[in-house]
Amino acid sequence: MSNRRSFFASLAAVAILAGCRGGAGGNALPLTSQTVRGESGAALAGIKFKSLGPTHMSDGLPTSGKVNAYAVNPNNPKIIYMAGGRGTGLETYSSAGILRTTDGGNSWETIDKGLVDSNGRIASVVNSLWIDPANPSVLLAATEYAGIFRTSDGGSTWASVYPTTAATQFVSYGGAVFAACKAGILVSNDDGATWTVKLAGTAKRYPTAFGAVDGASGSALYAGMANGTIYAFSGGKWSKTGKLPYVKQTGTDGSVPAVHQIAVDPYVPATVYASSNDGEWDQDLHASVDGGKTWNTVLESEYYYYGLGTQAIAFSYVHPHRLYIGADGFMYYILGDGNPNPQAFNAANLSIIDLRNVWTSANGSDDACWIASDQGLDYEPTCSSSSGYNDRVVSASSATGLARRFTVSPDGKTLLASMQDFDSHLTTDGGASWQVDGLYEDGFNELRPGDPSVCYAYDEASGLSISTNGCQSFHSSTSDITPSRLMTNTIAFDPKDPLTMYFAAGPNNGPGFYGPKGLYKSTDGGSTISQLTTSIVWPGAIAVDPSNGSHIVVSDMRGKGSTLYVTANAGKTWKKSAGVPPTKFWYAITVSPVDGRTVLASSVDKANNVFVLRSTNGGRSFANVSIVTNAPPLRGHIDRDRTLLITRGQRRERPHEKEEGAKSQAYVYSPEREIRYNQDVTTGKPDVAITTLRGAFVSADDGSTWTRIDDGLVSHSFWGSRWVKGYLYIASDGQGVLRSTKPVQAPSQRWR
Could you write out the DSSP letters of every residue in 544-569? Predict the structure, then answer.
């Protein structure tokens, strides 16, 4: 009882120290008397952004952001199309739209005229492209959220031809074009202009992948379904032939049996290979030699050596029965004769390391391969082998960067951005040029308030790293803490003493991910770190009152879901917040810079709505004040690196790797990413921004109403956000870090 009384007394003191105005009785916090700045939703909706980068990334060799769809004009191979989307397997998500080059990759342009959804926004999550080899001006695009689009002028203009969701793949067969989507297997007999449902899909059984051959050795067409079943097309009808082996492991990422890719032997069409999840993190390869009726799992005991298993498959058109397999860091080949334990041979050395799709074509004595990857679109003229690197990442000059979390200096010149599938990138000239900073992907970055020469990087591979020369070079902290990439705000500073820092620690248990869960504190700028004794199980976000460092709100993940805790005495005692519904994902948190009693928290409910809670008493209790958007999670589950590729072709073992390998919890990236007040507005009402999988939004009334601000962008998936001198910065899945072209809300006072 005494602890409870002490807690509320301390929280009341927070209000006094924060300079709150108005009367209050007992432990109640006074209400603000400040007025809302009059800003219309129309003004917010008119915000424009420009990309600062990084969009042309480097992974030791010139590369680009993720590509999973490709098409090339057979009459003019310098005309190439590519796109980034969700793909069909455990793939990194991209919202980069469709790009075209007419000079073989020296320059790229986004082609999106007419490629819009029902709300007029660019349908930029594109899973597959198909080009008519007889009429290369006709292309089809399968999008994640808006169905199928068609162009008849080489991509200059697009038109919606089948509005549906989760369209994933196309295939040509028997003079027709087939498409996979949640509505079922579609067929078009007029070059994609119109479509009919050939086999209706259901909630659990809808097509995700195709495989086909139609040549001198015979013909066959197969479809793989979301429930792991395989269908074959014969006599104008689809019929079930078999089902891939699958062992469900509840509570692990990837626990869905969906078929990812199918490859058919052009010399023996009854020989079929297919990839799917293995019930954990990896993707298994399965083989059938009887047209999909019975299946064997291939190379089962060797998968973990090849990273995430089979991510891309394609048969050779030169070497009979040779099957190329792309993995996380390697490409190799086997004899595709159904043997469950074939000998694996190294294929060509590639500049890219995370392969997602492979397309082969005869090229003299060997196959040429086009390869889509998380590092771009690659062309290898001799797919079977090469000395050195003979390939070329033809997308290297494109602008397709997947930026995640970032930090930016008060003058806007220094910006350290964590990337997906790349080391962090650094600019010291406001984005005019970028350099690789040698830090691991998907980390969190911060600059020390008041001294931006001190830079912090915090990721699951290296833990906490510190720079004292403006992020130019780092040294590892002596601590053994690491974050999970699924967290939100993992580092927070005391506003009066920035050497006092707080850290959320504890990644998912799994191979390559280690570290204890808990809330940690440093009083010397990160040199030494100690764990706070709390009842908090797994913190995922920390927010410190900008006016009072003793007032802290933390998001905690425990058995039945995420909740919130608050302290008024710098962590000595904590109180669980009232009115907080448990959610699958951690809450993101932000505290008003004007009034520490106003705290906003956001997460995702069971209906996939991104919602906002507001507290007017410093976090003691919350009430739901708004739904921002509906944002269903991605199909399936997001992938994680099993082997943590620190350098090309190498892996780095971390403590606890083996014993924690089988204990992964089924968390995917939250559709809600970050909520952040404009910290430079210290009078009136500060704007607050929220980033999500389905758009970026700003509120001018403490979260009651929201205006979408990304209508004019290609990408519509966002991660980190920052406010600098009234400018809003947001990180995107496809256009790097974006900055508003003018201040959204100017600071209340001059920058200090």
Answer: EETTEEEEEEEEEEETTEEEEEEESS
d(C-alpha 55, C-alpha 49), whole Å: 15
Report if pTM > 0.85: yes
- The rounded mean pLDDT for the chain is 86
- Output the DSSP codes for 667-726: ----SEEEEEE-TT--SS---EEEEETTEEEEESSTTSS-EE--TTSS---EEEEEEETT
Closest CA to 168 of 115, 114, 129: 129
Q: What's the token pair of residue 117?
A: 């959804």
Is residue 426 scored above 70 in pLDDT? yes
Structure tokens at 356: 């997602």
Instruction: For 652-671, write each residue's pLDDT tens digit.
Output: 333 333 333 333 343 578 99
Higher pLDDT, 513 or 176: 176
Q: pLDDT digits over 331-343, tens only?
A: 999 999 999 999 9
Q: What's the rounded Cα separation, in Å, for the pair 615 and 595?
A: 11
User: Smallest Cα–Cα separation from 564: which of 548, 581, 544?
Assistant: 581
- Band of residue 388 on the pLDDT scale cut at 50, 70, 90: confident
Mean pLDDT across 555-559: 89
Structure tokens at 600: 């906003």
Cα 144 to Cα 147: distance, rounded to the nearest angstrom? 7
Query: Helix, strand, coil: what percent of the chain each, to 5?
Result: 5, 40, 55
- Please state whether beta strands 425-427 and 435-436 pair in parallel, antiparallel, or not at all (unpaired): antiparallel
- The domain 2-51+401-633+669-740 having CATH identifier 3.40.50.2000: the answer here is no
CB 519 within 8 A of CB 532: yes
Helices (H) and strands (E) in the chain, counts: 2, 56
> pLDDT tens across 179-236, in order?
999 999 999 999 999 999 999 999 999 999 999 999 888 999 999 999 999 999 999 9
State residue 308's pLDDT score: 67
Q: Find tokens 């003018």 and name the residue.
A: 742
CATH topology assigned to domain 56-393: Methylamine Dehydrogenase; Chain H (2.130.10)
Distant-in-sequence, close-in-space partners of 33: CB < 8 Å, separation ≥ 6: 21, 22
- Which DSSP category does 654 fall into? -
For the chain, give every domain's residue range.
2-51+401-633+669-740, 56-393
Say if residues 172 and 179 touch (Cβ distance below 8 Å).
Answer: no
Q: What is the DSSP letter of 11?
A: H
